[in-house]
Specification:
Elements: H1 3-23, H2 41-50, H3 54-60, H4 72-92, H5 95-99, E1 101-105, E2 108-111, H6 112-137
Antiparallel strand pairs: 1-2
Length: about 160
Amino acid sequence: MTIGQTLLREFDQEMASSRRMLECVPQEKLDWAPHSKSSTLGKLVNHLAVIPGFAAMIVDGQGKRPAEAKSKAELLALLDANVAAGRTALAEVSDNHLLATVLVTAELSMPRTAILRMRVFSHMIHHRGQLSIYLRLLDSAVPRMYGPSADEKTPA
């Protein structure tokens, strides 16, 4: 089993949590933002839908910025397409390619495995946490991520 294949289990789990979160987004609130310095809900969820595709960009160095989804159906389709691209890249990449050190910025280089962890996994988790706050402020249900959410627990 390759490193990429071992990452797929975590990738699938994180992407399923992200999909559950995006399914709860109230489409009529995409222009809403909790603060003047915050992104709109629409910008945040579009970013979340694109992040899984970063895996393919990190692995094969290719990618382009997709058009912004304007509806929940488009958003979920965008997420699904990026998850599929990320899954394919992880399933097919060699260990040598993942372990190779590459230039991230002019001052920083690291193995692709570390870039995947930082730019896909941790990045997705961070923004999904932001989305959970947005959903709560909009009085929308917050789904489970790593266990039942307050909305899924039965009262004692």
